[in-house]
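User: I'm curious whether this sequence folds into something compact or stays loose and floppy. Could you predict its structure so I can see for myself?
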Amino acid sequence: MTHDNVSKFGKVTGKETIDNKELEAALRARAKENRITCAEMFAIAEKLKLPRKEVGNAATELKIRIHNCQLGCF
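Assistant: Here's the prediction. I'll summarize afterward.
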């Protein structure tokens, strides 16, 4: 992770949004205290038929942290 990526995890305002509202809703529904597991991210990507990278980028934009990550997939 680069320094630029770390800075994206600033203070959560609750006003963060992304264009894909279905993806946003899925991430917010599964995130607990602004954290989501890697396995949950895989499930969202599979269900919505999206690349894992896109789901990971969306989580970053929404300032949702990924934990229990499987070898840094996101």
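Summary: The CA atoms of residues 17 and 25 lie 10 Å apart. The chain has one domain: 3-10+17-67.
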